[in-house]
Structure formats: structure tokens, C-alpha cells
Amino acid sequence: MGSVEQLQCLLFPALISLFLALHVSTTSNISLPGCPDKCGNMPIPYPFGIGASCFRDGFEITCNQSTNPPRVVLWSEQENNIELTKINITSGEAYANNKGISYKCYNGRSFEGHLANFTLKYHRAFLFSNKQNKFIVIGSSAFAYFSAVRVSSELRDYWSGCLSYCLSLNDTTGNGGRCNGSGCCTSTIAAGLDEYHVMWGFEVDFPLEFNPCSYAVLMDENWYKFSIQDLRGFNFYERNHKIGVPVVLDWPSGTPTPHAAMVWRGALTLHVVAIIAVATT
């Protein structure tokens, strides 16, 4: 009897370690065996992957080594490639760079600008996150909205937008503040969107001198902090258009686990059960 109790005392710490390893394995970033697990310093967990047989359909990644640091690109046959900056397997979210910034500027005689859109139609596994993203409009007298089509919904056509208004820089929400309609505004988006097109509403005949340009873009609401400088000149566009602003993508089909990791965890579980059986016999 004493020998059994001794064996149990020796085995239980090992069992705890094994269970901890089992738990960690379910939450770690795991790539398939033999597949690259990083691009630069960014982990590439399954279902994403680099190279043949390393990814689930729709999750192929290319690692652009010509830049420093290397760029992680979500690949598509239509060359509508999207740069990713972060992958969160736990929440089922990927952070991408959105270069589709719409703007309009008054040059003293007339308005000129650019209307942008962003599509995920060539990346069917993904949708825009309606929890993390907001449609954000920046300007002293700016009204913008976007049109979209919901995926798998009876109410397919969708419109949303907002009006940002202020008479002076002192009327704005202030540096570092969240958009409240004075200097910038936000509009929620519906679930199930994979594309959007921006449009401007009315135009002011004589824009305020301190704010010649207005902007509209879908982006991660938690990333953007209002700056008074965004109302001056072409500042917001010049600062962000080359890299883009962050937008959050969901993959609603769920997060599959690599087969190899499943086998390993299953084997580990059986091993633990066998040890318990021996120790308590």
C-alpha cells in the first residue's frame, strides 16, 4: 500500500505538468508540421499557412521577404492581396491594412478627391468585424456614407454613415479623444459585410479655412484617436495612405485545429489516463 501511495506522490506532479502542457497546446499558435511558423517575427498559425498543404482553403499566406520587416500577405488568385499585421486565433480575428481612404479637399475653387472601396470578395473565408470596426468620418462639415451587401441575409442592401461638424478647432472632441460628432464621427456596421463603397453627402459651398479636407474610412475603432492635426491640410491621408489604417477581419466558419495537434493532444490525454489507472490500481 505504501508503495502505491509513494508512486502516486511521484506521479501527480508529473500529471499536473502534462495537463498544463495539454492546455497550452490548445491556446498556442500552432502551424502544421514541416510548415513555416513565422514570417519575419509574425507567427503564422493554422488555418493560415505558407506553402503547399500548409493552410486551409482560403487561408494561404505569402511572405514578402523583399521588405524589412517581411510583409505577411493574404493571397488570392485575383491579385487582390491583403496585408495582415496580426492574427489572433483565440478570437478568430485577423488585422489587415486598409489603404482605401476616401477624401475630398477644397482647393479654393472646387472640390477634388477620391472615393475608395474595400472588398473581401476574393477572400471568401473573411468578413469585416462588426464588433471592432467602425465607419469613421473626419472633417469640420463632412457627411459620408457607404453602401454594402450583406452575405447570407434576407436584408441584403445596407447603408450607413454619419455627419461630423464643428465651427472651430476648439469645438472638437480634442486630441486623443473618441469621435463624438465634433471633428469626427462614427457609424456602426452590420454583421456579414464583405465589401463596401463610400459616397459623400452634401457639399459645403465655402468650407472652413482651417479644414480643407475631409476623410472617410472603415477601420478599427480602438486604433483611431482623434487629432486636431487631422483637420489641417492633407495630414491624415499623407500619414496613413501608404501603409493603410487597421481593419479587423473575422472568419465566421470557426477556427479549425491542425490535425497533427489534435493527434498529439489525443495521445497525451490517453497517456495521462493510463498513468492515472496504473497509479490508482
From TrEMBL:
<dbReference type="GO" id="GO:0030247">
    <property type="term" value="F:polysaccharide binding"/>
</dbReference>
<dbReference type="GO" id="GO:0016020">
    <property type="term" value="C:membrane"/>
</dbReference>
<protein>
    <submittedName>
        <fullName>Wall-associated kinase family protein</fullName>
    </submittedName>
</protein>
<dbReference type="GO" id="GO:0016301">
    <property type="term" value="F:kinase activity"/>
</dbReference>
<dbReference type="InterPro" id="IPR025287">
    <property type="entry name" value="WAK_GUB"/>
</dbReference>
<dbReference type="Pfam" id="PF13947">
    <property type="entry name" value="GUB_WAK_bind"/>
</dbReference>
<keyword id="KW-0732">Signal</keyword>
<feature type="signal peptide">
    <location>
        <begin position="1"/>
        <end position="21"/>
    </location>
</feature>
<feature type="domain" description="Wall-associated receptor kinase galacturonan-binding">
    <location>
        <begin position="35"/>
        <end position="93"/>
    </location>
</feature>
<keyword id="KW-0808">Transferase</keyword>
<keyword id="KW-0418">Kinase</keyword>
